[in-house]
Specification:
Layout lengths: L1 H8 L11 E7 L4 E5 L12 H11 L7 E8 L9 H10 E10 L5 E5 H4 L10
Parallel strand pairs: 3-4
Antiparallel strand pairs: 1-2, 1-3, 4-5
Bound molecules: zinc ion.
Zinc ion binds next to helix 3.
């Protein structure tokens, strides 16, 4: 997965931050769906790699409960956690025991369960 994430980093559109991010959603039926961050001169129109991969999977027909894990790599030297907007979207589609797997270009790996990084989610039970 590391090599795929490194290659995908090259597709990120980040002319403002220069901070490239790649993400790959693994579905329960064994598909791997990519996403990269896509920035915009109007910064608020930027989409993160994680949400790009998740919404691409949804566009392909995947539903809540079809998502297994998500792999994430950043162009910086240290591993980075998903932002809280992405955590909210991860909570929407992934199971509580799904894994967020942070990978570094030099082989570092950190793994977290959704329940660890989103212990008190806002979800359908709050509506
Ligand atoms: Zn994000």
């Amino acid at each position: 997965m590391k090599d795929e994430l490194i290659k995908l980093l090259g597709n990120a559109y980040a002319p403002y931050s220069k901070f490239h991010v790649s993400a790959i959603v693994e579905t329960k039926d064994g598909k791997f769906i990519p996403g990269v961050n896509v920035e915009n001169a109007s910064y608020g129109a930027t989409i993160c790699a994680e949400r790009n991969a998740i919404t691409t999977a949804v566009s392909m027909g995947y539903k809540k409960g079809d998502f297994k894990n998500i792999y994430i790599m950043v162009s910086g030297e240290k591993l980075s956690m998903p932002c809280f907007m992405c955590r909210q979207v991860i909570v929407e589609f992934f199971d509580k025991d799904s894994e967020i797997i942070l990978m570094g270009k030099n082989g570092e790996v950190d793994r977290y369960k959704v329940s660890e990084i989103c212990p008190y989610p806002f979800d359908e039970t709050d509506l």
